[in-house]
Amino acid sequence: MNEAEVRQLFVDSGAIMEGHFLLTSGLHSPLYVEKFQVLQYPEYTAKLCAALAARFVNDHIGLVVGPVTGGILLAHEVGKNLGTRAIFTERENGNMTLRRGFTIKPGERVLIVEDIVTTGGSVDEVISVVRQQGGIPAAVGMLVDRSGGKVDFGIPSQALLHLTVDTYTTEQCPLCAAGKPFTKRGSRKL
Ligand SMILES: [Zn+2]
């Protein structure tokens, strides 16, 4: 899948919505991304994860790890393609950790997967967990990098789709200036 095909899949499934959105931050945006609109289709999730896994076939990956919630699905599907185990991290008292008896073998090469990366904070935390367990964080695989290319994990990374999402204050918003009403979130593309 090339980048245009990935974007089309997100748009067709309603995961990328275009309109005039009021974000929880109070800022306005012409784009809203709801990853589970695409991940709700197992067929699409499988396609995306196969494309993501293909980027790492030569990296001698022994384990795939993702943070809850989307990371569970991604790790499972990418791990299936790479023929590895797939586990996930979750928060306990605010700290990212492995639970459920999950372990990482010393020296195991680990691929970290995440659905949408904005600041990269969760991925950084997963990388720390991998290191604490004695594993080697080998690479990061993302479905969507919406950081505008700003994220740097200190290890190789790949994204299927790069998105730049503009945000505006009410005063600066060109959509407000154009008198465009807000789009109700959760509705399909208008
Ligand atoms: Zn606006």
From TrEMBL:
Pfam families: Pribosyltran (PF00156). Its cofactor is Mg(2+). Residues 47-146 form the Phosphoribosyltransferase domain. Keywords: Glycosyltransferase, Magnesium, Pyrimidine biosynthesis, Transferase. Its EC number is 2.4.2.10. It catalyses: orotidine 5'-phosphate + diphosphate = orotate + 5-phospho-alpha-D-ribose 1-diphosphate. GO terms for biological process: 'de novo' UMP biosynthetic process; pyrimidine nucleobase biosynthetic process. Homodimer. Belongs to the purine/pyrimidine phosphoribosyltransferase family. PyrE subfamily. HAMAP family: PyrE (MF_01208). This is Orotate phosphoribosyltransferase. It comes from Propionispora vibrioides.
